[in-house]
Amino acid sequence: QVHLVESGGGLVQPGGSLRLSCTASERIFGIYTMTWYRQAPGSQREFVAGILPEGEPRYAASVEDRFTVSRNTVNNTGYLQMNSLNPEDTAVYYCNVQLSLSVEVWGQGTLVIVSS
Q: Rounded distance, CA 17 to CA 2, Å?
């Protein structure tokens, strides 16, 4: 079974940057779409960014000019570079891979807090 592990979260001041990582237990990022979601306190989980198997990125409008999604298929790791962070970006960030119509894998999440 595929496992995903996120890392890189933490406390950052407004305007700062963080890079999240999502490491898979198998080579899947060149085969399946990797997607980043986030869930803020009291809110539903929402789409942030994704990267298709061929490498094409997708972004939510709220992050399009500030976040960059990428992946390294050699070390089985996906990334989310987050710049110009603001308090509204505070959330638990999750990576997800949809292996089939009925099977998807989630990481455990990594907490990002943007605060002065």
A: 29
Say yes or no to pLDDT of 101 above 90. Answer: no
Question: In this structure, what token pair is assigned to residue 71?
Answer: 């992946």
pLDDT digits (tens, 9 = 90+) for 25-37: 998 888 899 999 9
Burial readout 47-75 (b: 16 or more C-beta within 10 A, e: otherwise): ebbbbeeeeeeebeeebeeebbbbbeeee
Q: Are strands 34-39 and 67-72 parallel, antiparallel or unpaired?
A: unpaired
Closest listed residue to residue 62, CA positions, set 33, 44, 43, 38: 38
Quick one: tokens of 65? 């000019």
Q: Which amino acid is at 87?
A: P
